[in-house]
Structures are given as C-alpha cells and as structure tokens.
Amino acid sequence: MGKFKQLESFVAVATLGSLSAAARAEGVAPAMIGRRINALEERLGIKLLLRSTRRLSLTSEGEAFLEEAQRILRDLNETEARVSQGSLDPSGHLRVTAPAGFGRRHVAPLLPDFIKNHPNMTISLDLSDRLVDLIEERYDCAIRIGELDDSQIVGLRLADNKRVIVAAPEYLAKHGKPQQPSDLTLHNCLSFGNQGNQARGWLLRQDGELRAIRVKGNMACSDGSVLHQWTLDAVGLAWRSLWEVREDLAAGRLISVLDEYAAPANGIFAMLPERRHLPLRVRAFVDMLKSTYSESSYWDVN
After folding, report:
1. Cβ distance 172 to 255 under 8 Å?
2. Which end of the chain is more exposed for a tag (fewer CB within 10 A), N or C?
C-alpha cells in the first residue's frame, strides 16, 4: 500500500508541477507528499526531483522513472477495472472434485468447452463418492449433493436435486409395489455408503411432515453407479437422484414409486474454501456451472 502511495504521489507531483498542487489533488498536506517522495527516493537510492524555492524539476533518472511509474499505475487501474467488470481472462490451475456418477455426466462433459473458452487455464477433476476434505486436500471447488453440514466451507447452490424411489419392473412384479411409506419395511432397500444409509432413513413427506423412514436391505455400496446397476438388475428398491435415473424412467427400465410422498428437493452445491477473495479461475468455473444448470432444458436432455 505504501509503495503505491509513493508512486501515486510522485506521478502527481511530476505531472502537476508542485508538491502543493499534488497535495490539493490528493486532499492531504504538502508535508505528507514530501515525506512520500523522500521515502521513495531513499528506497530507490536515487534522486528523482530537484527542488528549489521557485521551481521543481525531474532528474534524468526521475524522467525515466516517471514513464515506468505511469505505466505501472495505468496497468493496475486497468486490471482492477477489468476484474470488477468480470472481463479479465482467468488463468492458472483449478482442482475440482465431484461425486463419480454426477461428475461423469454433468461436470466432465462441460470441461472441454470451458477450457477452450479459457485457454490460460488448466484443470484436474477428481471423481470420487467419498467426502473429500476440501481445505486439507487443497481443492478449489467440490461439487456436493445433499444438505450442507460443514460450517468451515461455503456452499453455493447450483441447482435443485429431486430424489425418487425406483425399482425395476421385474422386481415390482415379483414383490409388489409399495403403496405407502411403511410398506418399505417389507422390501429389499439398496443403500448408498459403506454402512448403508438405513440408519438415517429415506426422507419422505407423510401426514404433512418430513419423516425419515427406516429401511433395510441386504446390499449397500459406496459407488452410486453400482447401486444404479443393482436396481436395474431387479435386486431391490433404491432412492436415487432424478438426474441419474431420468432416462431409465422414460425408457421403462425403472419405475418410480411413492411419488406422492416425495420429499422436497435438496441441492447441488459448489463448495468453496471461502467466499471472499475468490480467485477468478474459481469464479469462472462456478459461474459456468450455475449458468448451465439453471437452464431447465439442460436437465431435459441430460
């Protein structure tokens, strides 16, 4: 901050012709301008200005330094203006993590065009269904689906995520179709996670309230794509995101049940280490996701 103030004061004195004129322009006392010039000359180890009682002039070193100082200040002002207007092209490396299934379908396909539009950037995408430590593992952004429970990071909602309970027609033909949430206890419910999510239950709306319905089943998996395939193989019921099973529902490979009890949508979030001083490369990436996901037509075809 002090160095830039010294540069600004030097340029003001050199262009306006006097300490008093520069002081009036900056709204400070002439003595303050004089101290800044003295500090700048001492730091550089050269004389920039020749001062007398009548006039002020630049030394040869001062003339050369003035040109460079004006360029530095001009570049700084232009860069700040471009950043504030969102027109500065982002650069640098971006580290992103996303759930495996969602990342394959809704993050990875977007990246070639994103990098094409921002050629000064590089990106690495980690697809994993584990809950990564965003700060400890030094990711710039993590895509997460569900409810937020980490107060140390910032979540920006990108889109709603509707969930449905689905099963293959063959499974329902053999075991019947549940008519109310309590019927789930009679079915094989496939759960996500190493321990399954039976302990938390499947969220459904019943009697005007949101309730966690305890379910049980003989198979669980921490890989969503495996759980999806088991459902297609008629192993049991599964509680899945609509983006994952939309095509199967349209084609009749899966059938949704208990739709009238469906819980409100949770969220698809971009998780960030902090919101203030967000690097431009991160902001550009998050803005791209938000813009893409906010189009209803995107989800209709993806």
Report:
1. yes
2. N
